[in-house]
Amino acid sequence: MEHMIKHTAKDIFRNYIQEKGLRNTRQREAILDVFFSADKHITVEELFNKMKITVPEIGYATVHRNLSLLCECGLADEIKIGKQKARYEPKFGQEHHDHLICIKCGKFIEVSDSKIEKLQNKLAEANDFIPVKHTLEIFGICRECK
Amino acid sequence: MEHMIKHTAKDIFRNYIQEKGLRNTRQREAILDVFFSADKHITVEELFNKMKITVPEIGYATVHRNLSLLCECGLADEIKIGKQKARYEPKFGQEHHDHLICIKCGKFIEVSDSKIEKLQNKLAEANDFIPVKHTLEIFGICRECK
DNA sequence: TTTAGTGCAAAGGCTTTGCAGATGT
DNA sequence: ACATCTGCAAAGCCTTTGCACTAAA
Questions:
Q1: In a domain, A145, yes or no
Q2: Does the pLDDT of residue B140 top 90, yes or no?
Q3: Is A125 touching B (CB cutoff 8 A)?
């Protein structure tokens, strides 16, 4: 049986836009397309440069504002690593994951471990703390850089 | 039996200074004293303000540069949380710990869990990744803010 | 038509740097 | 003496904002 309605990222985005009385624009649609088909962990600048190929007149601020909007409606996460500029990660229909980050080449490897997740929740509870979200980043040397 | 030589943070700092051909100054000693007796997770600005009490002529850049020096010689860690300004945590003779961070009051609670640490190492190894360091931050609501 | 969005440029906010004078060694 | 350190101010760097114009609804 198949009673489920499939919601694409675009559906979610358009719904959000409508509910909030915002407007859908050429730029928004284009940013959505490029963002979801680009490399994960993209910076504003990288996305801005990609956008200019198809929408040459686009402004940096527009890209930036729309990435914020994507975070707001739950379709992206902002990742800040040390002093690096912010990176944005698409978030759609996938479980939470952590990152292995290579300190030589900068690569992000996505991993997840349900045991660690559970222990984290226990750790929070043991401190009378209600966990909302978490970030785990392991820095080291990746296979290729050894 | 007691053959161990006790190294204070100051010993380590002075050794590092000497080895590198750097110089010990009035400001450095003062910053070391204040930093290690101040609240953990202090910002440059907070430390700068505290420093001015005993060393009124001190400059912001001096505080900043010496915090970097402390990180360099392993006596401090820089912590960056989202868009907040950098915070510095004294690191001396204590095991690694993670943070529970209250999203209401901003409080940092230090916690550690050896099981999680072990699983993190396994997770890294399973990905052919040599772990060097890691950060785990759990955001949520603390006891007092519930 | 009305109100939100865009693009530009300027402003912010924190971090970092250049430099002349002061200061350890 | 000589190289490092300091304090100041300026520059950097990324992010955010103000504003006049454009364009969804």
A1: no
A2: yes
A3: no
Q: What would the pLDDT profile of A92-133 be if each residue is shown by its tens digit?
A: 888 899 999 999 999 999 999 999 999 999 999 999 999 999
Q: Going by DSSP bridges, is the β-strand pair A98-102/A130-141 parallel, antiparallel, or unpaired?
A: parallel
- Asked if residue A41 lies in contact with residue A81, where contact means CB atoms within 8 angstroms, the answer is no
User: Are B119 and B55 found together in one domain?
Assistant: no
pLDDT digits (tens, 9 = 90+) for A41-76: 999 999 999 999 999 999 999 999 999 999 999 999
For chain B, say whether A22 makes contact (Cβ under 8 Å): no
B109 contacts in chain A (CB < 8 Å): 127, 129
**Interchain pair B103, A127: CB under 8 A:** no
Give the CA A77 to C1' D20 distance in Å.
Answer: 32
Cα(A116)–Cα(B114) distance, integer angstroms: 11
Distance between the alpha carbon (CA) of B76 and the C1' atom of C24, Å? 24
Q: Are residues A75 and A122 in the same domain?
A: no
Chain A interface includes B114 (CB < 8 A): no
**Domain span including residue B120:** 98-140
The residue of chain B with its CA nearest to that of A111 is B123
Contacts of A63 (CB under 8 A, 6+ apart): A31, A44, A47, A48, A51
Name the domain count of chain B.
2
Rounded distance between C-alpha atoms, residue B120 and residue A111, angstroms: 10
**CB proximity B85–strand C (7 Å threshold):** yes
Tens digit of pLDDT for each residue in A5-53?
Answer: 668 899 999 999 999 999 999 999 999 999 999 989 999 999 999 999 9
- Residues B11 and B69 occupy one common structural domain: yes
Predicted pLDDT at B82: 87
